Structure formats: C-alpha cells, structure tokens
C-alpha cells in the first residue's frame, strides 16, 4: 500500500542509441551524451560504429536499430551517405539525427565555401594523444631501473642516487614533451646495467648537495631502521660513486638539482637537447 505523500521512484526508459561515424565517433557520442543528460527519464545504451564507409555497412546498422526500436545518430561528411541514410531511416520511421550535415551546409552558405568532405580531420589530435599515452606508459615501465631489456628505446635516460627527483622529472618530461624517459638508480658498489653507457640517446646525471639530500630523505623515509640512508658520510660516498659513474658516460649532461624545481631541471634538459640537434 502506498503511503500518502510518498514519492514513486521514476522508471528510466532504456533507449538504444546507434552512433554511425566515418571517423572515431567520439564527436557524435559526446554531443548526444550531452543532450540526453538533460532528460532524467532516459537511460541511453550507446552502440558505436566507427569508420563506416559504405551503404551496405549502414544498412546493417539501420536494421539493428529498427529491431531494437532505437535511434540513430550519424556523423558523416559524405553528402551522398547523409542523404541516403536520411531517406532510409524515414522509410522505416526510425528517428535519426544528423550531427554534421546542417552545420556543414550553414557554414558553406554563410561564407560561400565548399567543405573538403574529408572524414576524421581530428585524427591528428588522436595520434598525438596516442603518442603521449605511449610515452607515459614507457616512462612508468622504465622507472627506477625497470625494463632494462627495452631501455634502448628511450629518448632520455636519467641517472642518480636515491631521492634526486629522477621519477618526477621523468614523468614531467614525458607528460609535457611526449618523451620516453627511463631512469636508472646509482647504488654504491653496484654496477649499472651492462652496455648502458654505449647507448646513443641523451643521458643526464642528477647531482645534489649531501645535506639537502639527507633532509629530503629524512622527510620521506618510512622506516627508521635504515639510519645509514640519512648518514652524511654514507651519502657523500654515494654521491662520489655517482660522480665516478658519470665520468664513464660519454656526453652526459650533469645537473645539480639542489636548489632547482622539477620544472627547472626539465627545462635545462630540454634546452640541452635542442642545442645539440
């Protein structure tokens, strides 16, 4: 029994939304998503069909949409395909929305221009996004000495003792300059990976004053047991060892990070890189 004044929960209407695009379909999906969000009663189920080029492909999608009693959203630059899909959806009384057509026609008339009718003009942005994702993925997989078997694919290798900002500098370079960056820790008494000095990409050694390094390590240290990690004499030996390693690496750029931000260090690396192109 319903109590007086009690609200009856609304039941959302599921709507199958068939998105047809001659590129990725992202534009059409974002537009129709923004529209449907304004209707609380609608629960859209998106079915995206990217890189559609032929009437035969579209016919199959229209048949599916008709069977599901859904709606069709299309983002096609080809005037022939747009006219055809409009005619075919009307034949079966299927609701369809042309995302690009009206805007192409309006702007063409306004400025007396002819569109290029080339699909996927935004693909270059997508390719740049993919390169950025690949650079970040590489950098994460080559952090702190990992991924040595593929380190030859790096654009830059950073060397330094623990807590000289290797990881954040690597990620800054990767995220802001789309560079694949590996970083290798230098540990007193342990030789760096075999053959790494002979690789031809840009190499950078990070140095720091012992007192500053001790301060940073003390702030970040989780376990009190490793007291030598903070000992100035031990830190001095680590830094001397790293200097010894740097002298074995031809053409290495050495940067003192004692009083520099990650951004400043990254900019020095990029400037050095540009000067040697």
Helix content: 40-55%
The CATH architecture of the largest domain: 3-Layer(aba) Sandwich
The topology string of helices and strands comes to: EHEHEHEHHEHEEHHEH
CATH class of the largest domain: Alpha Beta
Q: Describe the strand arrangement of the main beta sheet, using strand numbers.
A: 2-1-3-4
Backbone CA Rg: 29 Å
Beta-strand percentage range:
15-25%
CATH topology of the largest domain: Rossmann fold
Total of domains: 2
What is the H level of CATH, i.e. the homologous superfamily of the largest domain? Answer: P-loop containing nucleotide triphosphate hydrolases
Q: What integer is the average pLDDT?
A: 90
Number of helices: 9
Distance between the termini: 80 Å
Profile the largest sheet: 4 strands, parallel
Helix vs. strand class:
alpha/beta
Describe what you observe in this structure:
- This protein has 277 residues and is an alpha/beta fold.
- It folds into two domains: 109 residues, 3-Layer(aba) Sandwich (Rossmann fold); 151 residues, Rossmann fold, CATH 3.40.50.300.
- The chain contains nine helices and eight strands.
- The strands form two sheets. The chain has a four-stranded parallel sheet with strand order 2-1-3-4, sandwiched between helices. It has a four-stranded parallel sheet with strand order 6-5-7-8.
- The longest helix is centred in the middle third of the chain and has 19 residues.
- The model has no long low-confidence stretch (mean pLDDT 90).
